[in-house]
């Protein structure tokens, strides 16, 4: 065990630290995760359609007839999600550099996103836009655009090419003028790229990006990809690094795109096709927090070891709502030889079971996204509108309890031994005095 820990510390820890500190990856993660509430609002519009399919009969027919009314909010949420993503990615990167007027860089990224993704239906009628690429198809374009907008603005500021106003001018006015040249350069470049794609390539920039990313996009939604992601997430936690925060910088954009594609399919009266969505990850594989520690917490609450009992009582309520940092850092799970095997490998088994349950049709696929930080089973049900989804989430928690039990008993015995030794030492000191 010690040899394995030393090996991982030598090779994995430095890589994970670099990823955690890499500002561009973190900006992508922050920007993409920031649009989750917007996607949840759009996905909630799919709930009536899911209930209609679940109940059927006259109610199902009525829901289908009025589906356009229920899905109307998606036009302003999931259907233009890449605009919001572009804003948040650029704003996050600008903040990491300590740049002024970060929201202005976000707005510039939105304008660049419009230029790159909007396709004129009729070039003669410039007011007619085809905005289908503003949704999930434009998500990766927003990543590229959001990062480049800030880097170009930094370069312009570095060579002092911005317009500087006297100090007496109000800050808002001064920032607006200082952003003028970066705005102009970024938008002109975006228009040139979009024009070249349309005129010479007879296609759009989002379609080019999606064709290049097609192999990666298709391979991420697989049982082995999910298993590897959850394994790395848990392993990073063991070394004191926020596993989900690090790995999300790689998989979050894919998972969110899958969720939006599912939501769009449901809105069009079709079946969802993707399993690995953002909600699937947190609703099934991170129930009660990383490592699905809820039953472990209950064991700790009943433990005779005072230290474990105290931590369990502190962590029980947060764990019910998916927050288990008190357990991870209080037990601790970090560098804990007793917890390494169940904490790392147990969620991998749950990931494989959950994915296969959906792949084989036992549990319905995610309809879109659902709110997180809910008690076990609630997010899973809202995500799938299938009672079997809630059962699967609760099953995962119970299965993890079985994984933890023998290792917990060994850890508890060791803690009791340490407490007896401390009490014996105190008794000896009192007797000597």
Describe this structure in words.
This protein is mainly alpha-helical and 433 residues long. The chain folds into 2 domains: 77-218, no CATH class; 236-432, no CATH class. It has 21 helices and 2 strands. It has helices at residues 2-21, 23-34, 36-44, 47-55, 57-65, 67-70, 81-96, 102-117, 139-158, 171-178, 180-199, 205-220, 223-238, 243-267, 278-284, 294-301, 306-320, 325-330, 340-359, 378-384, 387-432, and strands at residues 119-122, 125-130. Strands 1-2 form a two-stranded antiparallel ribbon. A hairpin with a 2-residue loop joins strand 1 (119-122) and strand 2.
Write out key terms for the chains shown:
about 425 residues; 2 strands; 2 domains; two-stranded antiparallel sheet
Quick recap:
With 433 residues, the chain is mostly helical.
Present the secondary structure layout:
Elements: H1 2-21, H2 23-34, H3 36-44, H4 47-55, H5 57-65, H6 67-70, H7 81-96, H8 102-117, E1 119-122, E2 125-130, H9 139-158, H10 171-178, H11 180-199, H12 205-220, H13 223-238, H14 243-267, H15 278-284, H16 294-301, H17 306-320, H18 325-330, H19 340-359, H20 378-384, H21 387-432
Antiparallel strand pairs: 1-2
Structural class, please? mainly alpha
Number of structurally distinct domains? 2
The best one-word shape is globular
Task: Quote the distance from N terminus to C terminus.
Answer: 42 Å
Nearest-angstrom radius of gyration?
25 Å
**What's the total helix number?**
21
